[in-house]
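debug: dumping io for the single-chain case to check the tokenizer round-trip. Nothing else runs in this session.
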Amino acid sequence: MARDSKSSLRILYPYFRKYRKLWIAGIFNVALTNIFMLVSPWILKNAINDLEKGVTSSGLVRYAGAIIVATLISAVFRFLMRQTMIVASRRIEFDFRNDFFSHLLTLDRIYYDKTPTGDIMARATNDMDSVRSMIGPGIMYFWSTAVTLVLAIALMSSISVKLTLLSMIPMPLITVLVFILGREINKRYTKIQEQYSAITARAQENFSGIRVVKAYGQEEAEIKDFSLLNLEYIRKNMSMVKVWGMFFPAIVLFSGLAVIMILWFGGKAVAEGTMALGDFVAFTAYLLLLIWPMAALGWVVGLYQRGKASLARIKEILDARPVIKNSSDAIVRKIAGKIEFRNLIFSHGSAEILKGINAVIEPGVNAALIGETGSGKTTLISLLLRAYPVERGMIFIDDTDINDYDLVSLRSQIVPVMQETFLFSDTIKRNIAYGDHDRSMESINELAVAAGIAAEIEDFPQKYDTILGERGITLSGGQKQRTALARALASNPTVLLMDDAFSAVDTRTEEEILTNLRQILHGKTSIPSLTAFRQSGTPI
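debug: decoded output
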């Protein structure tokens, strides 16, 4: 477990190096903050000792002024401490979150097929916040506590070594407490975050499938199930609170025991005349100043354990690698559009989906895939996009094995229009011009005309500036398919794949679209997939 945590923490090393100047400045400010904070009790010690000697009023004013100046300087450096260390943690969070998102985009469909979206969202938000708290307030208060402990103990020892040793008696107990409860917090917080992921995943599924929930009248059932998840989340949180809640009372208790011993033995020393009153007051002040750092230690340990648990969860995703990736000498070139299947076989686990597919589609040919529902048409299209791994020697593009092509180059030239379309919650024009937001309105309109959706867009109150709901929910099924088709045409594909892309379109509109496509796709390869009862195209 310790090795795993160290491995997780290594992820952050490059980010610390990037902002090392801020961290160095932050540690410097932490040191000065605490140095000037610890100066005040020493000044007070001298003031009280001088009172016994008959100090003048002007002397007291100088002591008071010195304490005020020390306090103001400490406040300035405390401000700078936060402006360096907290700012550095925010910048690391910004970079880390962006890198995490970029990594998610490198993962292939295989990963997303088996990972709930809500779980990924929980790690990208809640877990990321916990990591930020660990490297921001966590590190800042850790250094503040460490500096205060070292300096205060050194100053206390200069006053009385005996009293300092007495005050340190509870320290081993605090160390053991931190070690035991810290491990327990880590374990319980991991379970809390897993439950939070389950809640997020359930909420995301309900929001995405709200039409189904309402259509079947399952609102009450879903609310009940969601409530059960939340109750379990509360139970796990309360389990951790019981452990974490022991930190502060226990640390304050042990610190209080130290104060009682100092008051007893130190008070006797003052009464016996072996210790000056000012020295005793300063020693007690330093001991009281140590109570907050010791209490903060429990808070810091909690932040560290929570951050470590969250970082381990984030690392699980960062360690994931795409199954499908480019070879070292991947080919980047313009393809002509010839496609060949040579005894293609493909299985999902133990289920064989495709077997013995042999066909050649010449460049510029319109060839339809015709088969019954579940016969593997969508799978075949997905293999042409390299969404799933395929063995070498089974699919060739322009007589070159599909595995030899650069993924980005290949996918930019082979463009799909799927039956289950996905549109972004944005304007229609930005959906059509996806990836090319500088495209002219004239070009966007031409694409919409070709896809048979232009006339309906013109009927919308805001026309091309109409904001679509999530997944394009404000459009009908046929309108979504045609908008997706316009988006695909915008990329000027060499090969256009259409997976039952006209299933929600009436026959007359389909014929209009096909007529337009014959002109636009002249000389390009197009492969629509159709259900067995729809007879059109050239079956393979």
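debug: round-trip ok. The CA atoms of residues 94 and 374 lie 44 Å apart.
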